[in-house]
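Workshop exercise sheet. Pairs work together: one partner reads the sequence aloud, the other fills in the structure field after running the prediction. Swap roles for the next sheet.
Pair: D.N. / O.F.
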Amino acid sequence: MLVRLEPGSSSPIYMQIADSIAGHIESGSLQAKERLPAARSLGETIGVNMHTVLRAYSELERRRLVEMRRGRGGVVVSGDADLREMTGALVSEAKRQELTKADVTQLLDDMWR
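Structure field:
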């Protein structure tokens, strides 16, 4: 199932939905260009109002994980595959510049702040 809700959670339902879908995107079980279920359909499946699902989809769009397209619903635009591709490019460039893994790690640590 795409979404699992925890009834006793202090997290709002829309955030549980968004976090659950984001987890699927980050794990790669939802790939770039894959369509999300229609809000009405997903709402009926998990027993919540479609507006709650739309709010979750808006949160995912805010996180830049999905793009909402009128008439087509939500489409995954990002995920682990994109991050892996960028990381591969970083590693290739670092090797080309003869940087060590420690050098790259230090650069990442500096930028993370």
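Discussion prompt: The mean pLDDT is 90. What would you look at next?
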